[in-house]
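Re: your question about Gfo/Idh/MocA family protein

S., sorry for the slow reply, the queue was backed up all week. Below is exactly what I fed in.
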Amino acid sequence: MVKVGIIGTGWFSGVHAKILSNMQGVQINAICGTSQEKAEKFASSYEDVNSYGNIVEMLDSEKLDAVYVCVPPFAHGEIELELLTREIPFLVEKPLSVDLEVPTRVLSKLNEKSIITSVGYHFRYKDSVSYLKNELENSTTGMATGGWMGSMPTVPWWRNQQTSGGQFIEQTTHLVDLLRYTMGEVEEVYAAYASRALSSQYEGVTVSDVGTVTIKFSNGVIANLSNTCLLPEGDSMVGLDYYTNKGILRLGFNGLEISKKGETSSVKDIVNPYEKESEAFIHAVRTGDTSLILSDYRDAFKTHEVAVAAQVSAEKGQPVRLTK
Ligand SMILES: NC(=O)c1ccc[n+]([C@@H]2O[C@H](COP(=O)([O-])OP(=O)(O)OC[C@H]3O[C@@H](n4cnc5c(N)ncnc54)[C@H](O)[C@@H]3O)[C@@H](O)[C@H]2O)c1
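Result:
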């Protein structure tokens, strides 16, 4: 039996807990929140789950094989360092933090040890993305454009730049990661962000509500990712379009549309990527075989570096080169 602990009692802990509780040979043993009461409330939906208001107490009291870390961007650091000290494999939700300070410390400690990690860049596990990657390997991509256009999530930490890192780091990071997964490493980013509506509409909004980022890849591909969180709820557009010498590949939330010389076809997403992500991680914990994990901490760090570079570029009004 793989014994799992979960840190965080919010929406996404619930999504992972539901998947884990339906997996054969997996037992959720413990849940840790910012208070014992919050953890108890979360635990009451599951059988035999102990609740804690402090991670050290949880890790001292339980013998866990793996931990899921589902906390907001600002809350990372102590958790990962503690798990690494105790050599406990972990799956951590994106983004790794609000900036590079914590991930740099975590990566440095991770480099001293060989601990299994996985990061919640779940798009990589989609059927459409695996098809897309294969198609792109057999064509020459000229450029890619994409966007994460939606409304502002209601959790209070999201609207604050200090606690979320802003939309590009918090949300659009999924598209940055997909671009890296399919196009390779990034050389330079140049970003422009602005605040158009939300800061005067709601209290405490310090994140930009529109932004656009030009990205140059080492292989010569140019991409642009734009995002906004000022749309009214119900209006959204999320996707990534690749323009290649064989045609256009259009990745959306539910699948891929392909156009080749005017002939169109599509690939629908059937497998639940979150389930596949957890199966890969739990398989690695059980067997030591990490080959099914498509995003680990080291790789996710590079995606996070690009997203943070975009923030720096927007602040300085200058292009930022990524160090090799
Ligand atoms: N991969 C995806 O598709 C996806 C989807 C949604 C959310 N997420 C990510 O998951 C993370 C959490 O998002 P959410 O929607 O669950 O947020 P949420 O606000 O609903 O929940 C966050 C929880 O973390 C708890 N928390 C904060 N600091 C903590 C600490 N030090 N120790 C223990 N608990 C702590 C909070 O009390 C809260 O219960 C975010 O980084 C978000 O980007 C990923």
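The longest helix spans residues 297-316. The two ends are 42 Å apart (CA to CA).

Happy to talk it through on Thursday.
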